[in-house]
Prior knowledge:
The longest helix is centred in the N-terminal third of the chain and has 23 residues, at about 190-215. Helix 14 crosses helix 19 (about 660-680), helix 16 packs parallel to helix 17 and helix 17 (about 585-595) packs parallel to helix 18 (about 610-615). The chain has an eight-stranded mixed beta sheet with strand order 1-2-3-4-5-6-8-7, sandwiched between helices. Strands 11-12-10-9-13-14-15 form a seven-stranded mixed beta sheet, sandwiched between helices. About 35% of the residues lie in helices and about 20% in strands. It has 27 helices and 41 strands. It is of the alpha/beta class. The model is unreliable at about 1-10, about 385-395 and about 620-650 (pLDDT under 50).
Amino acid sequence: xxxxxxxxDRHQYPAHWEADVVLRDGGTARIRPITVDDADxxxxxxxxxxxxxxxxRFFAPYPRLSAKDVHRFTHHDFVDRVGLAATIGGxxxxxxxYDRIGTDGMxxxxxxxxxxxxxxxxxxxxxxxxxxxxxxxxxxxxxxxxIRRFAAEVLPANTKMIKVFTDxxxxxxxxxxxxxxxxxxxxxxxxxxxxxxxxxxQRAEARSVxxxxxxxxxxxxxxxxxxxxxxxxxxxxLRDAGYPGxxxxxxxxxxxxxxxxxxxxxxxxVRDIDGHVDLAVVAVPAAHVPAVVAECGEHGVxxxxxxxxxxxxxxxxxxxxxxxxxxxxxxxGMRIIGPNAFGIINTAPxxxxxxxxxxxxxxxxxxxxxxxxxxxxIALLSRLHRRGGGVxxxxxxxxxxxxxxxxxxxxxxxxxxWYDDPETDVVLMYLESIxxxxxxxxxxxxxxxxxxxxxxxxxxxxxxxxAVRATRLPYETVSxxxxxxxxxxxxxxxxxxxxxxxLARQPLPAGPRVxxxxxxxxxxxxxxxxxxxxxxxxxxxxDLTTAxxxxxxxxxxxxxxxxxxxxxxxxxxxxxxGEGSPGDAELAQALRSAxxxxxxxPVLVVHVELGGLAxxxxxxxxxxxxxxxxVPGTEGAAVPAPRTTPPEGTHLIPAYxxxxxxxRALAEAVRYAxxxxxxxxPGKVPEYDDIDEKGAARLxxxxxxxxxxxxxxxxxxxxxxxxxGIPVRRALPALTPDAAVEAARALGYPVALxxxxxxxxHRADLGGVRLDLADEEQLLRAYAELTELFGPPExxxxxxxxxxxxxxxxxxRAVIDPAAGAVLSFGLAGAASQLLGDxxxxxxxxxxxxxxSLVRSIRTAPLLFGWRGSTPVDTxxxxxxxxxxxxxxxxxxxxxxxxxxxxxxxxxxxxxxxxTVRLAPPPxxxxxxxxxxxxx
Length: 936
């Protein structure tokens, strides 16, 4: 951006400081460095600031900036003097600057590490959180330039600015002298400053989505003059849903004398609308979208839903078009859903927004639904709301978002909204890709602690339209990390809906104990077997026989729920023939009334060819699709009935057409409930007195001085790990038989002889290891065998190592992934575990409780706990090792990879026999930096 000949450089223009941010009210602004080309913008900005704000900034009346002031405030070296501006529509709305000072308070250069900071916010934009966002960004810039502390002088009456500093969460001190408050604060992020930053992020992003989902007025741009077409269809969907706000139809091809389309005011341009527009739904060809965005931005539209295709999903040219779209919208402070979106729906009775391609408004409910694909969105809505087939029970939707290419608003943003949305109890998401796994995992963990979050995750290959940060983690690892965060991971949209129905209608089970009852012995046995397969603890099924009446079902269900040894009940039902057989409505009423006697336990029904029963079980739900009713004030439009609480005493029971589907949903609910209980006490990251963090940092610095990325030597690895209390069993090189004998004498018999060539390392199955060599004769014989089998010593790279106590061979790994962050992994060593992918994963830092669960998460964990009469091994020692590795990579992000293999866990203690460490400059931690929207 810096093109002026009057270049202000000790450094080139720092383009990486440019960022888009979401403000407190949900609007957006762009933050960027101030340059010499901004003189006119600065003067115009200053003229719009009130005299009071100028007085607070300069401590004296200061009606206008002099030429000297303008030069000073636009000429920066980007090191000791830095200025940032927040802009909307290219114009300044706020500025901040710092000047590095020495201990005497005078201008200085490095190594001085303190700077004075000052803000000025246009009065019309005060209260929007602009200063707080600027403070986060100027603090990050200062840390990058070696500044560790800010000082600010503020008049006591300037309470708003004092609050900006004091609320930021930094460690600070305050003094008062000569009528001025002086604040000094360290810029190192603290737990409190990060908590403040993330709370602000949640509020701002939630409000930005709320502005899209609950607009007071909507303009549909691209409404055709004749019936048909996308724009005309969306306009009709909005009308038919009973949207109570102001609607406008826009098309530049409308005749000038056209006043209405389908009873909606018609305009040739958004600019012609006499009134505010909150949301614009854009349904014009991609080539015409830029002009529409400009019109909307100039008119003050708050957000866009872009249905138009022809963007990143169409190739490189479309990707550039998509980037330009996002940049243009953000320049005006607008957020975008799309492009290539299916649309959005809000069923709240005071909103009734169907700004989507769905021809029918779903009935209100408590499920929030997010899909990136329009086709999947249609399938999900259909599955949730159709009668008969699939899950025949029905429920409703609170809000629905289909984000298309999600160039701006993503699943993370919508998750921020649903987190504290009182209208949403369960969140269902179909994610074809995860753009920011680290942030998604953080938000998912917080959301899952409050309400269930069920996710179908794409297979790892992102659609062409999605800009996704690269991750080196396998798909299975990402899935495991999502489960660690409390996400209910399912594989299909059928399972997504199955779980959603149960979680939206029933309480969480207190445990895995399941009662089974019904009128079919075979169906009960099938359900019993599926419970065992899912890790549940079913009781023997109770067969009521085919002659069971509705009263028999009621009595049996009430008894099962009252039994303290049951945590959930599955009722199986097949059609019965005979005069005494209960009808669907009668049976449904019997089950609902019995379930209401103990409302704290979940009840599920497995039915066979009883479509009427599924409908009857859901009959009390206000969310079932069906006849619509007139709502006063909608001018005769047919709209869904407002959400109502089910009548007292009713109990909505989900029904499933197959035992495996019901049991799978119940098993997911059991696991989620267990996670909720454990998340209430996540444990702690322990402190160890013998960890030498500073010594490790010095060693890492010295090693990295040799190169940008390197795998350090065995001796250096042992030294670094020792700083964290991780001893590696000593191994000595043995390039000749005599060297092997000398090594064994130094270590003491018995010893092991190992080939460390890359193709043989950690491959005992290939025969490159000889164990329990008790004397020199056995050692020399083993040496000769290895060289005869695998080649000369210079190829084998043999080493001699003292024998460790016998135990179970395991492997511990930690890697820094650029997208997901630091991940700790554990499994058993050997080909079997590698072939089966039997590794467990946790995000770093790992707590003591997480280390305990990590050890027990692998399928082969029984081998550690005395399987088939073997001696149990020292898992507490293994857990401590995992915690120490976690601390190492968390304290030193330059440690980008650690592998300990094998780690022999014996009945007493754990021995690390091999270790490799890779160092590199750490990847950027965007979760520790200032709030930003994804860059385009």
